[in-house]
């Protein structure tokens, strides 16, 4: 650990929304990271990760990373900051502070949000003058290199309710974005699941189903149909059982459609604002963190 007592020569703050995926198909890993990724559908939420970067004069280049004030060895963040150090012509000590208001590992896109907010903040603080697409592509590359995701970054970069219709990094892959107004997400985070495990062993089972769903969703662009498809997709993967079974049953019995976040034991629904309390009542007796949030239609950004 490096102790730095000095005034930073530059600071920057950036935010990336979290994201929930309801349908994911054809994760493709390629040596050309720009054309690697996944198709699917999901939505960004107004909770996520805020990252502050402080830059200090120093004799040798180094950095320190913390998440919610705890110093950590975060592989994705390390990959990104070491990439940015390659752009510099003088040494700095860089202090990176991630603040997360979403549970990590529950299918809420925390890894992608951390990567995106860090890349945005580093570009601003170090004045590297990269385009917004290049900034996001670095985050996308980091997720692929560290095997923590394949499509989350482009979704969080865009924001909103989105259909990822072609594979690739931001600026390469294509998204159909549907802004949702007067809707809120109600989310019950029960337990985490390993993204690496599912990316390796499970998603191929549902590719054919997912392709058909995306084609239908591109036509309807309907949130209720998305929720129905998300449940069917998760059920096909065996994710609607165990601890998810009873919360889903409770929502269904009250006429509320819901899905399971990919990948976590996390239940989600999207309802009109006047139905939020009704959805909460259906879930309040179950174990887990109950979150109510807005849809983030803006995507990742620097906070001035």
Provide an overview of this structure:
With 304 residues, this protein is an alpha+beta fold. The protein folds into two domains: 10-176, Ribosomal Protein S5, domain 2, CATH 3.30.230.10; 180-294, Alpha-Beta Plaits (2-Layer Sandwich). Helix content is 33%, strand content 31%. It has helices at 75-85, 110-125, 132-145, 152-158, 195-201, 207-220, 223-236, 245-253, 276-283; strands spanning 10-28, 37-57, 62-67, 70-71, 92-100, 161-164, 175-178, 183-192, 259-260, 264-272, 289-294, 301-303. The strands form two sheets. Strands 1, 2, 3, 4, 5, 6, 7 and 12 form an eight-stranded mixed β-sheet that branches. Strands 9-10-8-11 form a four-stranded antiparallel β-sheet.
Task: Write a brief caption for the model.
By secondary structure, the chain is an alpha+beta fold. It has helices at about 75-85, 110-125, 130-145, 150-160, 195-200, 205-220, 225-235, 245-255, 275-285, and strands at about 10-30, 35-55, 60-65, 70, 90-100, 160-165, 175-180, 185-190, 260, 265-270, 290-295, 300-304.
Note the topology.
Elements: E1 10-28, E2 37-57, E3 62-67, E4 70-71, H1 75-85, E5 92-100, H2 110-125, H3 132-145, H4 152-158, E6 161-164, E7 175-178, E8 183-192, H5 195-201, H6 207-220, H7 223-236, H8 245-253, E9 259-260, E10 264-272, H9 276-283, E11 289-294, E12 301-303
Parallel strand pairs: 3-5
Antiparallel strand pairs: 1-2, 1-12, 2-5, 2-6, 3-4, 6-7, 8-10, 8-11, 9-10
Helix pairs in contact: 1-2, 1-3, 2-3, 2-4, 3-4, 6-7
């Amino acid at each position: 650990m490096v102790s730095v007592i000095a005034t930073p020569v530059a600071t920057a703050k950036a935010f990336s929304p979290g994201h929930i995926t309801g349908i994911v198909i054809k994760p493709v890993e390629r040596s050309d990271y720009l054309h690697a990724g996944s198709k699917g559908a999901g939505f960004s939420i107004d909770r996520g990760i805020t990252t502050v970067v402080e830059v200090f004069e120093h004799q040798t280049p180094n950095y320190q990373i913390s998440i919610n004030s705890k110093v950590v060895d975060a592989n994705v963040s390390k990959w990104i900051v070491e990439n940015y150090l390659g752009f510099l012509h003088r040494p700095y000590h860089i202090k990176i502070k991630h603040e997360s208001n979403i549970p990590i590992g529950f299918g809420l896109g925390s890894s992608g949000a951390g990567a995106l907010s860090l890349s945005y903040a580093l570009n601003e603080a170090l004045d590297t003058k990269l385009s917004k697409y290049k900034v996001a592509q670095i985050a996308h590359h980091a997720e692929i290199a560290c095997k923590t995701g394949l499509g989350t970054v482009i979704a969080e970069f865009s924001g909103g309710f989105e259909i990822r219709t072609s594979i690739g990094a931001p600026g390469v892959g294509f998204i159909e974005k549907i802004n949702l107004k007067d809707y809120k997400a109600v989310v019950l985070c029960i337990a985490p699941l390993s993204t690496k495990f599912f990316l390796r062993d499970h998603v191929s089972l549902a590719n054919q189903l997912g392709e058909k769903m995306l084609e239908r969703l591109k036509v309807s662009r309907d949130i209720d149909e998305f929720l129905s498809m998300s449940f069917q997709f998760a059920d096909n993967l065996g994710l609607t059982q165990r601890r998810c079974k009873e919360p889903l049953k409770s929502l269904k019995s009250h006429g509320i459609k819901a899905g399971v976040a990919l990948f976590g034991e996390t239940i989600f629904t999207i309802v009109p604002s006047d139905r939020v309390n009704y959805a909460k009542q259906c879930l309040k007796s179950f174990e887990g963190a109950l979150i109510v949030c807005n849809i983030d239609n803006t995507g990742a950004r620097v906070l001035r």
